[in-house]
Amino acid sequence: MHRRVWSKITRSSHHGDVAADGSHTSSSSQRPTPRPALEVLYPSPSHGSSNVTEVDIVAVHGLGSKVDWAWAWQDKTSTQPPVHWLKDAHMLPDKVPNARIIAYNYESRWHVDAPKIRLQLCGEELADSLDRFRADVPDRPIIFIAHSLGGLVVLHALLHADRNENLKHLPASTVRFAPLGTPFRGTKMQSLAKKVAWILGPLGSHDGIITELEQDDKHLGDMVHAFAELRERLVIPTTCFIELYDSDYGNKIHLPNGLIRGKVVEEESAHVPGWGRVSLYADHFKLNKFEGPADRSFQAVSGELRTMCINRNMVIGRRKQSKSVVHSSHFMIPFGRNKNFVGRDAILEQLLEGLPPSADRDDCQRTVIGGLGGIGKTQIALEAAYRVRDSYPGCSVFWVPAIDLASFENAYREIGQLLRLPNIDDAKADVKNLVKIGMSQTNAGSWLLIIDNADDTDLLFASANLAGYLPFSREGSILFTTRNQQIAAKLDIPQKNTIDVPNMDDIEATKLLGTGLRESQLGDVEISKPLLNFLANLPLAIKQASAYMALNSSVTVSQYLEFCQASNADLVNILSQQFEDRYRYKIDAKNQNPVATTWLISFQHISQQNPLAADYLKFMCFLAEKDIPLSLLPVTSEREKVEAIGVLHAYAFTLKRETPDSVDMHRLVRLVMRNWLQEKGEWEDWRSRVTRRLDENFPPPTQENKRIWTKYLPSGEAVLDANDSLGLVDYNLWFNMAASYVVLGKYSKAEHLCLRLVELCTKTLGNGHPRTLRMMGNLGGALLELGKYKKAEDIYRQTLELRERMLGSEHLDTLASKYCLAITYFTQNKYEEAEAMHKQVLELRKKVIGEKHADTISSMSNLAVIRDKLGRYQEAEGMHRQILGLREKVLGKEHPDTLQSMSNLATARYNQKNYKEAEEMQIQILALYKKVVGEAHPHTLKSMHNLTITRYRLGKHQEAKEIFRQTLELGKKVLGKEYFFRFEGKSHLFYAFNKQQKYKKAEKIDRQTLKLKKKVLSKKHPSTFLSMDDLAYTLSVQQKYKEAEEVVRQTLELRREVLGETHADTLASRERLAKVLRKQGKFKRLLVWMGRT
Fold first, then answer.
1. N or C: which end of the chain has fewer CB within 10 A?
2. Rounded-to-integer distance, Cα 760 and Cα 776, Å
3. How many angstroms separate the CA atoms of 139 and 734, rounded?
4. In what order do the strands lie in the sheet with 276-280?
């Protein structure tokens, strides 16, 4: 048998080898003539190319190949010459004309007359040869393409170059790597190849070059890991090409067809997780040979190479950016590293394998740590965060608690501040969306985002939809900790990325218990086991027990167990809450909560040792769970406060944060503490104390003190939730919280709280009391912002009537109510009523506070805008000119109000079709806005918007298109993608597409805008109705009348409900419905409908 195989191979000089590509090889009697290590395949002198070379493509063939045939396709049934896809003008050179294509010649024969060589030596020769060959262009970008074993040669070359100071320019210039079927984890065919090499020993075979190809070889694994680190450091994009078809491997060594078939390199070996991946419809031996330009595999490979060439400079730029990121990455973790962290090695190993962003370059992977409350999820995530920081210095790490909306937003705001996102500190900024967009950008770099305590499904997916604000970046990774196993499913996290944390094993639990304790306290392991079993090996309970014994050094493990077992079972039942249920806590005498059991013993000792610490615990259980400001605690000496907080830290009831001015409180401790206060009859007393303390300290919200009130707001919300009814004594707290919601643009929350306060004030003080009227005014403002114009009108009308009766018609508060009522008329298109009321306010303000007062000028400005709407353009223009003169005189030419007057005047010129003059003014206004408030400001964006519309009117479509693109990009950065639509950032794009009759594009944009407005503003907001009108119009002009009719009917019903039957917009919707029915010839239905309406 051996002789038969031997004789067949020695007779053949044109059959492929057993390994790589099936290329032509020489027989043992024909040694190849030595040739240069590197040869230029394109451009050759015969090509006569005049293209400037911008990149070098270096091709490395596979095992047993001859370079002349490694990349050539030969149709044995045709007399046509072979197709060499690397040098034939109609193949790869046609795709990348500015590339120099180079082939590396190395001896890869192993079965016949083989050189005594190793892969490492081949790689080193490649690096040294490239250094000499490219001596005149050392910095020119390089792309490596390699087949099979050649990919490992490239790895050796780059690692060798990276270790050699004189060769470091080679990996630094490498902008892409494209391995074709490279066995990064070896191949199962290696054992067969070694047997063949042994059989062919007399012919001079040598297995040195194939030794590393053993499946899961340790040396090969180490090399691939080293390259992965180099690739990560230098940001070398890598795309692995994978064979989809089995290869007839036996045929290559002249065994019967089909005897040995299979994939030479399986997918798990040909692709390294985190690297790019492309599948080719070819077997292993055809991965590097293509029939012609139409070959599907050629199109995939050449397309990737073309993209690589085009993006070469971007890769270099990212590499430079990556180097700077190492110094500018952020580490936003609220806790210090837990030096006493023990165990959990298997979980951390599993977690860190897929957690770093580089683990999957094709996706923003999501991972979840789940398990019982107190099981140690947060501590595991904390340790993982520090390990990622240590191993990936260029990766930012951010920590966000998802306890409630306020704590989530505060953490997001801090991230935005670290990333220096535009407008992050603006009062009405959509912080969550700004951070989502900012972290999704490539310039945010590599990051790990940890969402801690993601337990509340309503908060994540319903009321606040926090899951909708998670960023997406292929350079990002998100880790969640949760006790609710449904969270992983709702977040679409696959099972392989879900890590369930079990209880600690006995060894880990014993180590944790012994942290900080004396040997005399611990005794032997057998003594500790009963206590650990009693505490259910729960890390939080063990930590609290250890903290208690460390503080009371005379207490042993046996004594602590006696304390636990001697406690009153009934009392433990009261203080224990069952938390195995994901949806609610239950009292279950059969399943004691070990945290509560430990807490009772610890709290009794704290009360005796430091009563102030116990009082702090009672006080803090009413505040937010995370980031509790110490400045809110009852006043005492600084020394006493430090000592009391130190006691709580020692028992692990509170947790330190990076900033010393706040602490966290474990949610189970908080819950048990609240239950204890209720059972002891102390609930109402402590609730009143906390509420009064907040009332004294919560300031009226301004931009200057924003950091204070945003920090207090989560605790204010917690206190608000704890109050079944609001008390008038705490009016200032509730008023300031409602004002905070308005400043932050949280109008729904403001409306809800204002309604409660109006009800309280009306009931307690009467409807004419100044406090009642003040709250009614705030309620009207919230309703106005929410688009609930009719309700806002009713509120302002009531306020006006009461103030006129109580204060008189000329009181400034009365005029303010009348001013607000006029605005509600304007928003409902009741321009005549709005004009009449603004005229009254204007005249009275002139009389009471003078013509040059800012409020008087505002009244004049609103009146002028109304006259614009009424079509009285010349009259409006005259007023705008007068107002502009006053504001320039009183406020200065560059004051924002003055610029708004200039903008109003330009609009007046536009409305009179003086487009050229309007354009000139708008150019001037835009330049001033950029100077005064900056480019990234909503007022600047609005000016750009206006200029775009005017230029379209002037027929300057290209200029309009360019400024529109700038506006859109800036709008996304400044306002966030969704809120940019709220400011109708695409309305002029819709206009442009319709003017140019690009209706399908217009329809697509209309639908996007409508969807976003429904999400951001609600389906009942008047601005949403306008988008529905736009969509109906676009559908109509495309003769999609049935769809248009459906949209118009929906709009009409919504406007009837929100604006009323007689509102101008409702009447306009009726007209639109009549038109669309006429267009469809539905005259009978039209007549019936008209008769009914």
1. N
2. 11
3. 65
4. 38-42, 99-104, 55-60, 142-147, 174-180, 239-243, 276-280
